[in-house]
Fold this protein.
Amino acid sequence: METVLQYFSINPVFYIFATLAVIFALMMVTSENPVYSAIFLVLTFFCLSVIYLTLEAEFVAVIQVLVYTGAIMVLFVFVIMLLNLGRDAQLTEYAGPMKYLSILLGFAILIQIGLATKVTFSIGAKGAYPIERVNEMGNTEAIARELFSQYLYPFEIASILLLLGMIGAIVISKKRPD
Amino acid sequence: MVPLPHYLIFTAILFTLGVIGVLTRRNAIIIFMSIELMLNSVNLTMVTFARFLDSMDGQVAVFLVMTVAAAEVAVGLALIVAIYRKKDTINVDEMHIMQG
Amino acid sequence: MSNELISSLHHIVVTPEFILLLAGIIVLIVDAFDGDRRPWLAPCLSLIAFLLAALLMIGFPESHGRIFFQAYTHDTLADIMNVLFLASGVMTVLSGWNYISRWAGESGTFYGLVVLAVMGMMLMVSASELLTLFVAVETTTIALYILSGYFKREKWSAEAGIKFVILGTVFSVILLFGMVLVYGATGTTVFTEMVSGAAKSPFPGSQIVFFGGMILILAGLIFKITAVPFHFWAPDAYTGAPTPVTAFLSVASKASGFGVLIRLFYGSFNEVPGLQSFLIVLLVALAGATMIVGNLMAIPQKNIKRLLAYSSIAQAGYMMIGLSAFSEIGMSSILFYLAQYVFATFGIFVVCIIVYNHDQSDDLTAYEGLSKRSPFVALVLLVCLLSLAGIPPLAGFIGKVYLFTAGLDKGHYLLVTIGILTSVVSVYYYLLILKRAYIEKGHRQDVLTVPHAERLALWIAMAGVILLGLLPGLVVDRVQMTGEFILGLIK
């Protein structure tokens, strides 16, 4: 705990927004109404975007807001409104033993990962983009360099993936004469 | 600078919350939102590693993962709409085709 | 643009993936403009695309290599898997020819999606870099989500679709989480570079994170091959999907999972200390559990698609015997087993489709008196079921012997014993189906008509099962070469 406080004085932004993100995420998972869930998720994403800034990943922070909150969450809210799930929302929650089991499972994962970080953990070989170099050329340029050389191939596949997503949304939600 | 384990513990908490959401909630839309939360925690882990590894791969990966998430959400929500039209519910427990 | 990129772009245009991408888009466009007047155009174009892609692979055998900064590997493993995917693509198109247009509507889009799904599977098997692998896996699964939710008239198709999507997405996240841990522990995403990174790291902590990542990746792939403990989605998804898609899921999707498993765990990671012995224990346990669960759960089923779903879980268990052997023969036995599995499974599912087209039922009772209604269809069912059960001289027998030999070679005696015992169990429930088809009298006596497309598919399936059984050398030499090649890379 002491170490956290010590780091807090150096970089309070991370700890404040991490706490906020956890609180919002918790409220997202627990709130009854899907609209509230969506709003809390948006808030979580904003906090995450700030945390990306503490990692000096400006481009990711911006597209986090643009794509996640601006596009994906709008899609969620749109569907909630379209189906008019705001009020009654069929919230018969499943309260069997599974619920407690799953909470247990969740904490097991948590503890496990916490342990993994406790062990003398050294990450792999250093890459070619130390932060000074990235700051010099700009974060966006550094991403673009990688994306359009080393990762051009997955990038192209991602375009096919988007095409499929589009086709899928149209094919599935189109009303057909029965 | 914030040390690496603090970031990892934070993402682990978010991931766990996402898992709990998927396992305990029965509203398909909220399940999808919990999956988004899990994806986001993985994204953050990736950027964290990228920062501490001095590499750009993690940030590029986030870009691609967001693409994937968008496409998956589009297909998933379309299916939810299709089911709601048919059955007037999106509760996954009321969709019983399970017979062992 | 760097030289590497330019040569990669030159290279990629002669790969089967590229042909299928173009063909998939052409099929979708042609169907959008001309689908109503010429509904046969889309399936014909997709068949031509599959054949062209196969010809291309035979025509450019020298196109092997790694391109796109090692993101794409084209080797004999990719070749063999690609042939399997193309074969199951052809069979899916043939078996869906009448079924889809009658029961699902919008037939043209269906074929476009099948072509793109086959392409995605090829991308999966040839991916040799984590990000590429992830995006390729997602491309395939999204196509499969759409295909399995395609059958809207049947009331549970969309429900099975949503369950498949939710579970599939959760397991994609788990797969991605594993990849992130591996990336963090090694600092690279390229398979071949990861090995040296992981093997050299002096810190025990990195090893643990690397192992954890590998296990999560394995979990994501086990979901794909429907092995225990992540098999539970298969019966629902298989029952709810249109039958041609069910067949496609249980053959091609499973094959792609095995392809990636072989690429990941055979080629690269033998050098990481401790990983292999750990994986052997894990895989042996999972293989045994998968065979037992799959075969026992298949016995009480009343719906043929559900029964075949459990049977296909069991088949994944048999193939995991080969996987857990971690040897040249283990790997080639998986490839051989997959090759015969394509024919046997599609043969049975085409019979299901023919029966469904007549009776609109997937119940086992619909198969009563099948031999009177159409001796040919019943014969194909007999041959394919017996092959799945592993009765000589059919291909399934050779396949199982091959797999069991691989297991015995490595001393997995208990596992092979379980395999043999569960095969006997499987003979029991396969024979129950055949008893209905041959001995019991059905209440329906009308003759089953078999349209041309389905007839062709039945002939291909039966010929494949019998030929591979009588002349296994046709394929065995080829898969053995692949085994030597893949393992030769690291020795």
